[in-house]
Amino acid sequence: MEFNGKVALISGATGGMGEEIAKLLSNKGCKLSLFARREERLKEIASGLSNNKTECIFKKCDVKNIEEVKEAVEYTHKTFGRIDVAILTAGVLIPNPIQTFDSSIIKNSMDINFMGTVYFVEFLLPIMKSQKSGTIVATSTLPDRRGVPGWGAYGASKAALSWLMESLRTEAKQRYNVNVITIKPGSVQTPMLEGYSRHGAIPARKAAEIIIEGIKKGKKVIQFPLAQVALIRMTDLFPVFAYDSMDIDQQKGDGYPSVEEE
Known about the structure:
- The protein is an alpha/beta fold.
- The protein has helices at 16-26, 39-49, 66-80, 103-131, 152-176, 204-217, 226-235, 240-244, 248-252, and strands at 7-11, 31-36, 56-60, 85-88, 135-139, 179-185, 188-189, 202-203, 221-224.
- The protein is built from nine helices and nine strands.
């Protein structure tokens, strides 16, 4: 996929990978449509990206709100007449310790990380089906096959997303020529990881470069960084007794909140 002249919709555009993807695509001649909850920050980013190579529009959008997602997609389509690629990066990372197990944390994670993408897919598909072209890129996570202690809410929402994208990918391509791509990042230096030490975390800019190159090459799954991919996929093969013997605190990672029993 060549990006010059294409219309790119980006959610979660005010920080981390979303912002860096927007910056890189602005230099490739893309027409950009940016969405996130922080409107002032969106305005600042859009102003900085608008140049001779690109046109950039923006609108406040909380992905938990289906009407705002619908308006975001309609606004993009009405402005540019088409949507060639949607890169959906909005998400949250919230620990849910077993000592204070709280269903509201899981619901919030599912609403943002999973349903927020589902809403976009619902309104993007009819447009891309009518175009007989388009690419939907959703951000899951590298450890999406086994549960990680303390991170069940995040992991469950991302595992559900990986499953959904997998279920859509072949049929969307064969029936409508719509590409579905799943991003599975390991540790990336983003505001979401502030306070958590992650060995081997890569800069958000580097992650954005990998994502854009993967989209360009037409990859179905984009996983990175390589060392973490090898480690995670190796642990995916562990038998249950071996996986369960791994150190809990090490799996949670540095910075995980200390919690007292209720």
